[in-house]
Task: inverse folding
């Protein structure tokens, strides 16, 4: 019987001892510890960001009357994307940050606070209008494949061509050469 009482007392005191050595982390402390360091972009980082995001197809429309400034919150209608892995591999200090690519700017964003850290003007700024696939292929598509962009196609991609297309096959609208090999 004494053994039973000793075991019962030990089992009741065990949780008290465990509580005194509790090493759980308070969620508020965890959030404070996960804050990224303040970002001060230098010219090298700006160039790397611009180069890495030039081929990313993540451009989105900004809400009407939205003028991004550092410290402002990101509108809820905008999507925050993670920095590309090749960029993070070259510049690890950018890993905790996200970005939003707009027609004229790239926003570097703190994803925890959903605030704008930096606004980088794009060198290849677009008009913000949706491009048709033919327009994109004639300009940016040709540029990305190493060809020179076709300026005439960019200006006039939706207009019909000046010369009517030739019909396929023998439609009878052209005279045949009379000296064609006849047997």
Result:
């Amino acid at each position: 019987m004494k053994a039973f009482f000793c075991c019962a007392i030990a089992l009741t005191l065990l949780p008290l001892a465990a509580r005194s050595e509790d090493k759980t982390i308070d969620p508020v402390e965890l959030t404070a510890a996960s804050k990224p360091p303040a970002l001060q972009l230098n010219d090298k980082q700006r160039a790397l960001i611009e180069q890495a995001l030039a081929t990313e197809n993540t451009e989105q429309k900004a809400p009407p009357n939205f003028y991004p400034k550092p410290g402002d919150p990101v509108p809820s209608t905008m999507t925050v994307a993670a920095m590309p892995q090749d960029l993070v591999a070259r510049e690890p200090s950018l890993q905790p940050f996200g970005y939003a690519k707009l027609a004229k700017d790239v926003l570097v964003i703190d994803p925890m606070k959903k605030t704008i850290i930096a606004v980088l003007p794009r060198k290849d700024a677009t008009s913000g209008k949706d491009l048709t696939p033919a327009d994109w292929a004639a300009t940016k598509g040709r540029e990305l494949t190493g060809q020179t962009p076709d300026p005439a196609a960019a200006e006039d991609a939706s207009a019909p061509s000046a010369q009517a297309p030739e019909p396929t096959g023998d439609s009878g609208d052209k005279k045949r050469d009379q000296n064609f090999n006849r047997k």
Notes: The two ends are 124 Å apart (CA to CA).
